[in-house]
Amino acid sequence: MPPILLILFWFLVLAVALVILLKSAEYFVFIAELLGKKFKVPPFIIGATVVAFGTSLPELAVGISSILQDQPEIITGTVVGSNISNIFFITGIAIIISSGFFIHFKEHRIEFLLLIFSTLLGSYFLMDKAINIFEAIICLVLLAIYLVYVVGFTKNKPEENTPSEVFLNWEKYTLFGLSVFGVWLGAKYTIDAITSISSIMKLGNDVISQTVVALGTSLPELAVTAAAVRSKQFGIVLGNVIGSNIFNLLAVLAIPALVGAFSNHPFLIQDESLNVFGIPMMLLATGLLLLTSLFKKMPRSIGVLFLLLYLFFMVGSFMKINLKTLLEQLI
Question: Where are the alpha helices (DSSP H) in the chain?
């Protein structure tokens, strides 16, 4: 098949996958909200566990597949890129399209501290361009502690306009299960299509994983965010971002590392730009999210700033920018 026809074919696959992905995510967040209301679970907990982890399954699937193919750069690129995308792109869009978007830092300060600690810990583990079995176990233990805390100890005020009685039948439970599968299936073929197009166009794996693949795996978060913002479920948006980023750092890095350790596929990274651009940008994104949580009401200019920083990240990834060198030139 000629390259141009092959590219067109993968664009068709991409279009179909996106439709499946977006519709599945819409049903997913709808049923997740109903389940949360039925069992009187606060929206933040729904966002930080079921929604966040469900939409992060594509990253985990990509990670396990990548380590078994001895391409751990795809894992780190996807994790770093997805976390940056979740904050700068997903949260940025949420701030712009919503009215009155705000973050309750005081109510969620423990979750923020867990996110910051996970980001610092993951960055530290990646400094030597490897994740060993002991580091992987540490990450999974911290993830277990996070889940226990969120589910068992987080107390949140219920959102307004919550119906007193919610009825669920077997059809809705079936739809919920199908939506989970649809999110995973749509994201998988979205990634397959994007990486295939990029491969035909001769783009590097490390760059593609940090930009195109990371954006592809963040599309479920975007769909969930759009649906949640429309219904003013800001707790789900915030919980989704924080939960997804923590899950990426503590599970998407750790589980493939364990799989690699037991299958003789070591988690060793060759990507030179990771420590000079990717990780610094992830630290910047996390720090800015913390700073914006101090606003009583989020101005839309913050959303614009986030999107501009995301654009800089995308361009910088393709150009292999060294942030230290760039800052020295600017100063």
Answer: 3-38, 43-46, 52-68, 72-84, 92-97, 109-126, 133-153, 170-200, 205-208, 214-230, 234-247, 254-262, 279-292, 300-319, 323-330
18: its two tokens? 């996106």
Give the chain's domain count.
1
Tokens 């150009």 correspond to what residue? 319
For residue 35, name the pLDDT band (cuts at 50, 70, 90).
confident
Q: Could you give the CA distance from residue 174 to residue 144 in angstroms, rounded to a whole number?
A: 28
Residue whose C-alpha is closest to residue 75's, from 62, 87, 86:
62
Contact between 259 and 265 (Cβ < 8 Å): yes
Length of the chain: 331
pLDDT at 310 over 90: yes
Cβ neighbourhood burial of 268 (10 Å; 0-12, 13-18, 19+): middle
Instruction: Please report, for the domain that includes residue 95, its CATH number.
Output: 1.20.1420.30
Residue 4 lies in a domain: no
CA gyration radius for the chain?
19
How is 222-275 classified by DSSP, letter by letter?
HHHHHHHHHTT-HHHHHHHHHHHHHHIIIIITHHHHHHHHHTT---B---TTII
| 246-296 residue pLDDT tens | 989 999 999 999 999 999 898 988 877 888 899 999 999 999 988 887 776
* Both structure tokens of 290: 């913390």
